[in-house]
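call fold target=Lipoprotein
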Amino acid sequence: MRRQSTHLSYTRLLHTLLKTTALGLLLALAGCATNPSQRDGLERNQYAWAGAVRWGDFEGALNLIDPTVREKNPPTALQLERYKQVQISSYRDVGADSDMEAGTAVRDVDIGVINRHTQAERTVRYRERWRWEPEAKVWWLVSDLPDLWDGQ
């Protein structure tokens, strides 16, 4: 009799532990309830943006900038020509933060810039600011093209 009651106690304890663990996992998953396609979309667009800048395709990079931002501040032909005078040697992520519920993200990067004429290299810090558009299910960059001359 004693053995059976001990077995029942262990069984109840095990069931309680399993229920508690399952509840904990469920709550943890609810806390991470971001839309996977939203996070994937951010990573995909950040990767595309970094690739376009890294390979000097600044006109292509413009396609990832929020259309309202592009419309308010379109780059001039002269500004686009200036980008042809530099070679990007690196594009390194140095910090990022995102709030999926608010639909915002920022990423700080260091961009290695080489002047094609002087071969002088320098590093420019750039902050990407991203905005999620839920209707279109797309992330838009809301900052302009990087200022690779930083006041020069």
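return ok
The chain has two domains: 1-33, 34-141. The two ends are 88 Å apart (CA to CA).
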